[in-house]
Amino acid sequence: MAPPFVFPSSLRDLERDTDGDGDGDEEPSLWPQNPIAVATLRAADLEEFVKGASFDLSDKELFCIEEQEVFDGIYSIVRDFNCLPPALKFNIVETLRSNLSVLLPNIDSLSRASMSSPSDTTPINDRIASHRNALKIYSFFLISIVLTEESAAETGTGAKVTAHGRKKNHVYAWNWEAQRGRIISLVANSLEADLSLLFGPGGTDERYLSFVSKCTFVLCENQNVLKDEDTRNGLCRIIGAIATKHQRISQISASVSHLIHKFDFTVPHLAEAVASAEKKFGDGSLAISLVREIGRADPKEYARDSVGADNVGRFLVELADRLPKLMSTNIGVLIPHFGGESYKIRNALVGVLGKLAAKAFKDVEGDSNARLRSKQAMLEILIERCRDVSAYTRSRVLQVWSELCEENSISIGLWNEVASVSSGRLEDKSAIVRKSALQLLITMLQHNPFGPQLRTTTFEATLEKYKEKLQGMEPSNPDKDEVANDCSPGEVIVGQDESISDSCLASSQDQNDRDATIVDITNLEQIRALVASLEAGLRFSKCITSLMPILVQLLASSSATDVENTILLLMRCRQFQIEGSEAALRKMLPLVFSQDKSIYEAVESAFIILYTRKSPTETAKRLLDLAIDCSIGDLAALESLVSSLVSKAEISSSTVSALWDYFCFNINGVRPVQSRGALSILCMAAKSSPSILGTHLQDIIDIGFGRWAKEEPLLARTACLALQRLSDEDKGKLINTNSRVFAALQGLVTSFSIPEKIWYGAADKAISTIYTLHPAPEIFATETAKKSLSSVFSVLGTEDVSNGDETENDASLSSVSPSKLGRFLFVISHIALNHLVYIENSVRKIQKQIRKNEKSQSTTEDLQSDVSKSSEAQGINAELGLGATIDIAIESLAERAEKEIVCCSSEKNLIGHCGPFLSKLCRNLTLLQKFPDLQASAMLALCRLMIIDAEFCEANLQILFTVAESAPSEIVRSNCTIALGDLAVRFPNLLEPWTEYIYARLRDPSVSVRKNAVLVISHLILNDMMKVKGYINEMTVRIEDEDERISSLAKLFFHELSKKGSNPIYNLLPDILGRLCNQHLKEETFCNIMQFLINSIKKDKQMEALVDKLCNRFAGVNDVRQWEYISYCLSQLTFTEKGVKKLLDNFKMFEHALSEDSVMNHFRSVISKCKKFAKPELKVCIEEFEEKLSKVHQEKKEQEETTKNAEAHRQRIGSLDEFLATKEVSQNSGNSAEEETSEVVDPSVDSSTEHTENTPECSDHTSTENFQTSPPVTESGGAGEIESTQPVRKGVSRSRAKKTRDPVSDPLVDRNTEYKENTPEHSADTSTENSQTSAPLTESGDAGEVQSTQPVPKGVSRLRPKKTGDPVADPLVDSSTEYKENMPEHSANTSTENSQTSPPLTGSEGGGEEIQSTQPVRKGMPRSRPKKTRDPVVEDSADSGPVRRATRSTRRQGR
Questions:
Q1: Tens-place pLDDT, residues 1091-1109
Q2: Which residues are registered as beta bridge partners of 1282?
Q3: Which end of the chain has fewer surrounding CB within 10 Å, N or C?
Q4: Using CA atoms in the order 1212, 1218, 1221, 1222, what is the torsion angle rounded to 10 degrees?
Q5: What are phi and psi of 259, to 5 degrees?
Q6: N- to C-terminal Cα distance for the chain?
Q7: Which residues of 420-437 are buried (b: 16+ CB within 10 A; e: fewer)?
Q8: What's the pTM?
């Protein structure tokens, strides 16, 4: 019996494992003892050796592979398999594969044999061991061959041997892919077989399974291997069998998870492997293990590994699609990942929920209510995820809802909620979300369960009738059942082609109802369900109808996908007859001028579907109705579409014939307006095919200028346009055969039968037609002008009109109808303008003919003479300028002809004589204010004449700008603004000095004027006809215009301007910033403007340069508001590494502005923005810069605070000086009352006076804010009361009275006085804010009280009185005085805020009494505590006498 075969980790390891055989503990194993170096054999010997080994395997028993010699030979062949030629490879592989395929059925026979003869166990055990060994050896060698071949294919080592074979077959000559698939399938079969007999109850050999699984996953990492279906299926079977049948769940799960994270191409195949394992073996353990492993993962890991998160998400969706029921029971472990940061995982979970909602709850046995609750919970999560923070997730949710709609998995009860959510997403800021929302709404309309018509009115009428029927059927006291909206929330979904009411017809088709709109339904529950469905349908119809304004806005979106999907949605709405969809679809017509090809194609295809895919008559009817209702802009778009479709043959000739039938009234019931619409469409078609109009030329004249024109005035104008569109051949026929047309045109211009508003447009086209068709238009136009003149001025001649004085003009004007005069001026000016165009066209034709003649002449000369000579002669003529003389002569003649149009030097020039009259008329503003329509016509005519002649233009520019600014009519101002644009193109040098006034039109109060000004200036600048000057800031202000249309136009202008050259906005931005800072704009307006302009700058170099420019603006600016604006602009820039460095280098420029908090906040915003992209080195610099900013900001704030305090101190000192001067004056004037009461002396006043006289720098200030009243201060004596009303200056302290029993002096005052005299600099500031009243300061004696009513000024401290029983000395004061004398500079500042009263300064005498001082203590200095004394310290009266006399003498000196 051969030793057992033990699986090595690799093929080569089989030889290395021989070193371990010496260990007695290990069982001996089969290993190659005498391998042969096959690679060194000659070709003949190699072939003989391989064929011999194959013969042994085929001729002997299956177990011969256990024999050492055979084993060594096969091992040697497999080890050097790459060295074999293709034929020998095929030979050995086929032999090994066939033997293994024969061995597998023998396992079953062996199992039956062991069961039939259980007594004979020894031979059976030997056979089992042999089968086990053979199975492992064959499997090992076959899998090793597969690995060897694949590694050789990847490295290309097998190319030399198989090069010849590859010419016949691109893979291998022996079709390796087929062999590989067979081998893998055979290994899978072996694993799926019952191996329990071979390996015993302990299970399959662990090394065997590990080797096979390891090789399987190695092969799965090769994308080319997985492309082969047989190989892929075999690998999936191996994975499923090892995991499920052989219970290796954890190992396989870890390997599958690794593949999912690292190799995206394996995701669908691994999901298929997991699903097939569950279906084949009925065990979903592998799937459950993978789902739980994904659920247990940290959400932050998916945020870091975006590729892995994407792969895991795709795997979950694939698994949910294949195993929906199993996933639905394990979805709970995945729900927490909705709170993770990875949007890819959230997207996947949304997709999983969508798959489960659509598939997991169909045909499920069990509790239906639990099933519906689970589904409802999933759908609620999907609705909630529509508001996800990530746009990708929001978009994915909407896509899932679309899939659910297509699967008919949304109940009617949830339908409107989904529609409401998707409608709200139409205004999402992300284009991909809007796209998904539009597609969802399209899908919902297509699969709606409410029927093919969704008119709101129809639903309301039907619903009302069924409600009445329901009320009639309900019993008088019914039990209120719930409406059956949710009775079958599963999925009562009806297809698009049948409505809810149609679904109820099945039970009542045999009954005939009198009302066709009401189905005769007798079942009460059906009626309730129908009413509920109709209510849901009505809500859905209203929801879609309310979207029309939003859809019209989306048509103007900058995103092409928005426009395309909006058009598709509107077409779907029109199909379901949603109100407002037809009008919204017409808004798409101007999009034909879009530069985006996809948008143009979408509009064109929609137009074809809507209007041309019908019968010819219906198509003609639709087109003419569209032309009737179109605006001017829509007509231009419709003309472009129709002409394009005619050239592409999308509008057939039969449709054109139907249009002619409508125009010629050949169809019954045609109205004149329809005839006009048909002619308009024919004119549009003639733009690409002029011959269309030639067939009905006479009809155009007869109908266009006949009796129908009186009923439809615009018909004549359309007929004029048709005549202009005629081909040259038809124009010649018309001139030769029909002269009546010119009389009709002249009558149209000179008659007054057409209403005034329509006449101007008709006369415009008529005069243009005359100049287009007539061979001598100037002669015919002259006759027309004369006829028009005679119809207006029937009495006056032309000389009177041009040469009369102003009084005669006023008299003539008073006798002329203003409307007729306005028409005459229009005719004259339009003839002049058309004559100018006629001259230019004539010059162009002459020049073209000259070039044509020169070209033909040069060709004939080339045929007659030598080519070199003729070319040399032409070169000489060009150098001498002989060829240009003809062009110069033509141009001079053209200038002369143009000048003669307006010049009145010629006596026969009618228009020239009208020029001065028109100029005088326009200057008579008083007269024209009475006739606004006449002013509009006159100014329009003046502008036309100004366009013709430069001198006339220069002479009337001032009146034009005056009227443009001050005219009361906004129509006149708008016309003048538009004319200024034309004049700027015609005479740019004349208009250049008036540029500022052109920009001033942007400030006009009228919306119409501002809009036209924006359009005019945009046209001039974008077409390089006007330089962008310093007034462009006026245009930037219009970005934030109150009118949304003007704001959009201004933004469009700057968007287009940014595309020109190197973006002029970059150069204009600093100047715009400076000018906007000087305008008093709201901060929000300024910020929005600058943010928009800065966002239009995309280049990094320009952003970096702007950093320098903006920082430099800090240097010359001291206005805080400008600092804020500049710093805001800096915060809006996109910083690069260079930009950050420039900001750091320019620190000195803006250092002085960092004291402001708002400026500092903007710089903090810059820093936070820079930190996001900064590299580690730069991040350190940014952090240092941030610290530096904070430090400087703090220092600046402290300096600013110090400066404010110093300024306040300076003001207080000035107030004190002023007070001292005032007090000296008051002391000199004297006061008799003080002399009479000299016995009662206030030592505090005297000491304070003495102190202020002897102290050079001293301020004693108390600020009393909101001071209302000051009570009087009185002094009382023994017998009466003396009141002093002497005012005290603001800023000076009020002396409090001291209450004494006897007229004695207070040593406290004396010592304070002595201290203050020796203190050079002393400041005692006391601030008493918001004080309402101050207690009176009194001095009382035995018999009376003396009160002083001298007012205390605001900001001055009040000395509190000291209460004493006897004249005693205060040791506290003495010690305080001694302390203060040793300090050269002393400042005591006390701020008492919101105080109502101030406590008195008291001193008490006695053993238990306390002496208290309220003298203010300086901030930061130690506060002296009051000292309690038991015994009073008495000073003799001799000391107090001189004090009193000194005080009196001081007062006398003051007097």
A1: 999 988 888 888 888 888 8
A2: 1275
A3: N
A4: -110
A5: -60, -40
A6: 146
A7: ebbbebbebeebbbbbbb
A8: 0.68
